[in-house]
Design goal:
Length: 422
Amino acid sequence: MPPFNIHPSLLAIMDQYYDVERDYKEPLTLQPFGQKTEGDDSKPMKILYVTFFQYPHTGGLSHYITSIKNGFEKGGHSVDVLAPNHMSSEQLEEWIPEASSEARKFMNRRYGRVNEKIVKNLSYLHVFGIFLKEKNLQQYDIIHAQDLFAIFILGHLNQTYQKPLLFTPHGFFTKSRLKFNKMQKGSIEEAYFTELEKVGIAASTEIVMISDSFRPNLMDFGAKDERMVTVHTGIDFNPLPHKNHENIILTCVSRLSPRKGHGFLLEALSRLREHLTNVEVWIVGDGVMKEKLIEQAKELQLNNVKFLGKRHDIPHILSMSDIYVLATVNDNFPLSVMEAMFSRQAVISTTCGGIPEMVQHEETGILCEPGNVEQLAHAIKRFLTNKEERKRFANNAESYARQHLTSQVMTRKIEKIYQTYL
């Protein structure tokens, strides 16, 4: 493994936190590169997408990359994707443990203490950085990072290549962890990961946001308004024809995690007992909240709630369903709501993140405040008791999705942004 090193900006922030003096010779800020021009829409582009997470994988980020990759390849462009699981077995099995050991020794020697989350991150940044450097990034017209770690590494490498380097965040690592108590306020982790986000953002030529809701957080980290643009996520989703059935079916497709708000959905349903005689509730997905939610449904005597577990036939499930509910308390631009819209569902969700940019309240769905059980119960009751309203909202949702939320629309908008840098 090449000699282990820590990026100067991360070293500086740790030194500052632990009150260690040092004379910094290396520049701590990174330059963005790429000038906007009239653009060239005739030239086939060579595009690179980079993520610090596994690809391909399940989940929104992986879907997003696949969607734009397929879109650009259909348009005659050449597209590569690089992710840590593409590294060699030597890099994964030998270099990363070696780098971890070096990082641990370094922290112990310099600060007299070790933070294992930072050690793990430093070791992956180091080895993935080496892996990317070997890939001849000079060959690409456009490099597009898909998370804060990828943009941080690429920002450093791009000081040499000086390519247009774009960034699409799919969430906020530090703020999300602070919100859900996975990270302590005022901790070394908060200082370290906040610095990482700031450095990557400063190195971005342009930030392509999946929703406008990202803007305030990005500006908190130093992003400039004129270097941000919103392109809503689009998907390739082929819904199946809607199947008629006796009961009304209400569905929620989501990971069973605290932030997805399933507990609020169950509570809302328990207030509507007299309206549930001809209703089936299908909760699709798996996760840490599974046992707790099954127990809650039992306690509330919600016998019509079925937990279907993880499924691979979502189009089939949505073709049977009439109402879709995602009572999330923390989200960005959830894929499952888009799939429900394409499947002609009467959608109920919350005002979290970019959902109000996807679902127009009282037009293509009903939006409630996150955690507001009363509003949620009222919205569900409306759709259960009024078939005409249910159909109207479902048709509006499908029509909006087909017009605005396809991967074709998304790819076309992103292509126009890329072309201004050619």
